[in-house]
């Protein structure tokens, strides 16, 4: 019998499948809280978690589908994560700027991405200089360049003026860039730098005929729209804006329990 084409599952990580302590959003009494598994340690401290139930679901999913972590994290930040289940053959980092194959960067893919950015949007140096000039030290904590592809700021969210982010988004859009506010981070990302393009490349290489996706932020919208079916949690930028699309399910769950629900949906939708 001919084998069926694989199902590809492309999922954002932070605040979609894995959660910092501040993002867990556990509202039940402590005695009823789910058991958590630490999946990321940084500088000898636990940083990110999923529920133990979610860990089991992800292990099952890794045996059933082509699971592709799809993140805006740099390669170094991604490689700190120790997800349960089989090691993914493919991973997408830097919002699609790097395609990892068995943990190693595909240099041809990266070269193609950088060439496209040079042709289609303002240079990173211009964006970074504008961030440096306009961010207020009162609320700015860090200014970082990620993989020489995009920039992000770490801020004190309660001190951050909403108007500043809106003005930045308008200024950036005129130059072919997108702005996304996620927790304490403000990302400025070139519009052609997309998760969806890298996911389509993985689908081509694996022969996948059916793609599932999940994500919570504005930077995940293109990923969700490119999938056959997608899910977003009840928190994050997309939920705050009430964003949806015909093949997208808006889940009510928030925090780490949303990650568990998303994995259940992935498993259900990827079964033959």
Automatic annotation (TrEMBL):
SUPFAM superfamilies cross-referenced by the UniProt entry: HAD-like (SSF56784)
InterPro entries to which the protein is assigned, alphabetical: HAD-like_sf, HAD_sf, TPP-like
GO molecular function list: hydrolase activity
UniProt KW Hydrolase keyword: yes
Keywords: Hydrolase
Protein name in the entry: HAD family hydrolase
Source species of the chain: Streptomyces griseorubiginosus
